[in-house]
């Protein structure tokens, strides 16, 4: 855990097209108090790992990108809610970026029992995807991996963006010049990560799945 001036982050991507509307900077935080069976990124569950960064420096970096929005994932973003609220506020002092956030908690829980930091972060979020990943309810839905998870539009910023069939947004697969492969997005089928790694025959650089794999 950190004070609000620092964040423990697991990874980031400056231009993701499958985790929210448009092209988004995605920030995966390190540490999660939940233990969902089938979590696609178990290496991001322990607290104390990852990289510790200064919130204000990260905000300046994100604000300087061409991203349409910011997506917060992990790990559990609301485990570092105060620092993330500060991050979003600092970014929006420069650019009015859209903010989407994944969480394993329910919106009702965060709003009523999450505490002041959670409420502060919620007040800055445009789209919240909530609920734990339940493998028995696996589904290929827009930005979610199980049918219990819900998309909440907390503001009207994206009112016109969620029209059409509620189907998965697909995966973004990237091959680096050294041949390493990484993928981003919500796994469309259970066990996708293991199958993908087996199919390509190499170890991906870093799986960058989503809270929807809860
Ligand atoms: S899927 Fe998300 S909420 Fe569940 S254990 Fe993994 S990081 Fe935590």
Brief synopsis:
Helices cover 21% and strands 28% of the residues. The protein has 214 residues and is α/β, with parallel strands linked by helices. Strand 11 (181-185), helix 5 (192-200) and strand 12 (206-208) form a beta-alpha-beta unit.
Description:
The chain has a seven-stranded mixed β-sheet with strand order 3-1-2-4-5-6-9. Strands 10-11-12 form a three-stranded mixed β-sheet, with no helix packed on it. Helix 1 (55-63) packs across helix 2 (81-92). It has helices at residues 55-63, 81-92, 107-113, 116-122, 192-200; strands spanning 6-16, 24-29, 51-54, 69-73, 98-102, 127-130, 138-141, 144-146, 150-153, 171-175, 181-185, 206-208. The model has no long low-confidence stretch (mean pLDDT 91). It has a single domain, classed as TIM Barrel. By secondary structure, it is α/β, with parallel strands linked by helices. Bound molecules: iron/sulfur cluster. The site of iron/sulfur cluster has 16 residues, from loops. Iron/sulfur cluster is lined by residues 32, 34-36, 39, 41, 44-45, 74-76, 104, 133, 211, 213-214. InterPro entries: Aldolase_TIM (IPR013785), NrdG (IPR012837), Organic_radical-activating (IPR034457), rSAM (IPR007197), rSAM_sf (IPR058240). Pfam families: Fer4_12. Its cofactor is [4Fe-4S] cluster.
